[in-house]
# Entry
Amino acid sequence: MLRLVSRRARAQWPLLAALLGVVTIGATLLGTCTLLITRTAERALEVAMARAAPAAVDATVYTGAVEGPDVPAVAADTRSVVTSALAPLPVTTTARASTVLRALPPALAPGTSVGAQAYLSGLDDLPARAELVTGRWPQHPGDAVLLESTAQLLDLIPGSRVHLGAELAHPPVPAIDVTVVGVVRPLPGRGWDRDPLAAAGSATGYRDGRFLQPVNAYGPFLMDLADLLTTGATVDRMEITAHPDLSHTNRRDLETVAGGVREADRRLAGTLGDRVTLARVASDLPLTLRAADDQRHVTAAVVLAIAVLGGFLAATALVLAGRLTAGIRADETALRSAVGTSGRQLAATATLEAGLLAAVAAALAIPASSALHAGLTHLPPLDHAGLTVRPAIVGVQVLAVVGGALVLAAVLTVLAIRAVPTAGDRGTRRELLARSGADLMLTVFAAIGWWQLYAQPSAASPRADAVRVLAPALLLTAGAALALRVVLPALRGVDRLAYRARGLALPLAVAEAARRPQAVAAGLLVGLACAAATFGLAFDTTWHQSQRDQAALSVGTDLALTLGTAPAAGDGGLVSAATAGAVSPALDRGTTVGQWLGTDGEAPRLVAVDTTRAEALLRGRVDGDRGWADVAATLAPRTRVTGIAAAAGASLVLSGTAVGDVPLAVTPRVLLQDATGLRTSCTGPVVPLDGREVRLPACATADGLRLVAVALPVTADTVGEPVAVAVTLTVPAPGSTERTTDASPWTATSAPPIPSKVGNPSVTLSSTPTGTALRMAATVELGGAEDAARTLVASAFTDPGPVPVAVSARFADEVGADNGSQLSVMVGITPVPIVVTEVVPTVPSAPGAVAVLADLDTLSRARVVVGDLAFPVDAWWVGNPAGPDAAERTAALHLGTVATREAETARLTGGPLRAGLPGALRLIVPAAALLLLAGVVLHVTCDLQARAVEVARLRGLGMSRRGIRTVLLGQHAGVLLPLLAAGTVVGALATRVVAPLLVRSDTGAAPVPVAQSHWPWSAEAALLAVLLAGCLLAVAVVVTVQVRRADAAHLRVAP
Amino acid sequence: MSTEPLLRVRDLHRRFRSGPTVVHALRGVSFDVTAGSMVALVGRSGSGKTTLLNVIGGLDRPDAGTVHIDGTDVTALDEDGLSRLRREKVSYVFQSFGLIPVLSATENVAAPLRLARVAPAERERRVALLLELVGLADHAQQRPTELSGGQQQRVAIARALAASPRLLLADEPTGQLDAETGLSVMALLRGVAESEGVTVLVSTHDAVMMALADRVIRIQDGHLDDQATGQPSTSAPNAG
# Structure
């Protein structure tokens, strides 16, 4: 038997080489995909963890209220616990600690009736968290540096000595003297939000639980941590953050660390005991690892689906090759049967040959898949994701390749022992029924697969399931089979039509195309491969577009600068200069809707920007052909606020009078707007309404500011009859080029909660030699409580009424809102009435969230008219920033953290945990094209070899070589063209109905916005051109050679 | 029957090279065949019968010598001329029938008519007539694999006659048929040759065929060793 196989292999080596090629390609594809979902996926997890933001992997231990003598030991024990929790990874730790408040000398904070307190803080990496403005860093015991704001408030400079009073404790903790050696500016994003005063430098009315009454707090006095720990001061809060080095980690270590972190709380409590009143370990590392693992599974599921598709393709190619082989060997098989070879012996021979083929194919495919995988990792996007590896062989890859080769060999064996139809055979009823049944089953399975995909919950598991893995291959195969059902009858129809032709070439070509039994297998391969290639290309585009859509919606704009601290007037100008784009301050924070706090701890989001520039600013897909400009048209105010131009650096002057003897005073608050729409409020000192002028020097601090609102809370020490008051605010005019007067409709109102407390409010504008005078008048009701709110508000706009908003579909669903619904959202502490004017799928920067989109100007106006001049801003949003380094220039402003749509897109499309998917898609397209061309060459070659006699007979009939070439080319073109077209249609339909369902988010949930299918016309046209040209070239070459060889010698050969 | 030679073969030589070996298939073969006659070409296997038929039909080219069919020098024709010759004057009946498997009997018979671009109506009339002539009118839509060997050869004969050739070359047309079927095929060939006025040159081992022929030409080792005129030989070899 072995001898037969060996001799036959020598005689039919081209045929066996073709079979070997197909099995090897299939097994190689399988091995490469296996490596993508194992080796690359593991590597991706490691790279992703190594690239994770420190906050995502750090472990921080918070301890509270540690008495001075215990502080050094608690710090050391805490470091030990957190370090061991992160073992075996190398760890670096940083620590910060803040003491309880101590009394400041009264001379440092005069004029306050409440006590002034200060605290010390120690940071062991202070120079990395702050920028030295003046002086030097602490070097000696007792050295301290101050934040700029603290130093200004307390009027301290380097060299100043400060005596911080004793702690009120038992036993008493003595006072501490520190020397101010420098002034620093906090750097954004360096953890200053965890400072007791969030790096504000001071806080009035501060409560920390140790004092019955609010105090005015100042600080921190920043010292070297080691110095602080030895002062004996009671530490109010201490944080020790451990950062694991994940640059050379592996999955097992990561799992160990995640487990250690989860156990760390218990160990910490046991170690620290009652030396602390609070001890807690916080780390996102387990969550980060789980999220990375989820993403890995999401990617693996699609890569697996692609591998299955490749397997289907290879199996189909093998079916074709097997049928052709069996056809060529039909005579030999008949002869062996005639000489007494049993069916079992025939099967054994076939199995032996197929097994040997599988062994050789596996031996070739294992190194080939390793090399292909390594090569793939050296190409984008895998190389950009840091996933480059050298060729290596792993166990699971060997198993997959060997298993795949054996399955394909089994297919070959089955085909070898089946009866082979010959040319001219008509399909028997049984065969037709069997094929119809197979097609029907395939179609049913495909339909079930599609329905399962379509009906999967939006929060489906990230892990691969059989439906998601098999559905694409099933759908494409069923589509190709059904297309064949259409193409072959269509060819038969053409066959009938062609019969009417007078010549022979056309009807013969069509008859050959329509009636040859091999056309079914070849047709299935051509259709499926074309469908797979076009689908692969389109799915790649669909997936990338979905990632871009997700990135756009996630960031909400082109560039978002999330602020670490409240913005200052003029910051918008800096951002504009850095980005050269459309800049708007943005509000992006949680809110409440009436009394509703949201569901599952997820607060409703309130997003507000300058919607008059929505088209330039807002990103993310809206339904249909609408854009954000269309949505924003209902949100933007009809007129812009211009206000009164104020000279930069000049003091606003306020004076007022009250009729009668009742002493009244106002604490003026003014709201100024810069060119970018940012509004900053400024609170002046208490101004008695006695006619004297008071200057407000710290308000107009930047160029281009315009006064847009004034709030005058009137205070009175007594109650009595209504009093008429008149207040004049003079705004110094800037240079002559700027407009000083204002055409805005300045309006005066009385703010809630009891508007009747201020009657007859009025405001007028007039020009004066020094600027613009804003004269406000009202009658103040002095009845009721002395401290009742009586606020006169003058604004450069009228009350906007309910703020028009667009709400997300989820908001509408959960709140039960619709167009016209009137609700209320909290902005800060002020309820703002809103009216729903539009329901959009989702709101920029709040994908899938319960969210509200409003115009920031209108929102601000709604707050101003009720006396709330605070302008809530969380970020700067920039549309159309100029140049690729706009993000870097913006980050260099040190105003906050920068996120860009492009960076998010790059993360989503080329991140290590995702790059495997486009990599696999780039594998399936050429693999499908290769198998298609191989199948075509194999089919044409075998067909023409089998028909060499027929070609010679055609010559015998008097047909010229040219005529024969025309027949053969026409025949193959007649089969290939409709099949390629049908395959393209199947690929397009699969793209339409399946591709969007295969795109999932990081967590395996449906992406937001919902993925839409995209058909890259130019790329698909190029692919089809390549496939068509390849097919026709292969056919033309084979036909030409075959026709040239057709001579009289063939006429002596039996059919 | 005309006495003018339809086929004139003069001093034909054909050699084949197989590695270092040179095989002389034809060595100076010369003979004439008058129009309307049926001539049997007899010889052992390898004697050069098929080569001679292929050279006469223009499927192969001689190394030397000439072949004239109806006054046309076949050896001087180019590829297109040879194709035209086969379409218009010469047709073949092969031992292995030579039907196109994917075409039905009707379509096979119609093939030469299509090559000659005969009008469809005339083509259909002619095909029906020929199938009737060979007794296969009831099998017109069947494909070759659905016909017996004898039926296939009848279809082949009908196809060979379709374009009304002047010369029909038949290469052992009964080689794959049993004796009874072979006899009926031979009788058919004889009959259609007479009815259609076609000159038939048939290579055969079959003594019955020789008996039906007007003349027997014997070929051995590439040259003619005997010629019979008018009467068929009865001493033909039994095996080739």
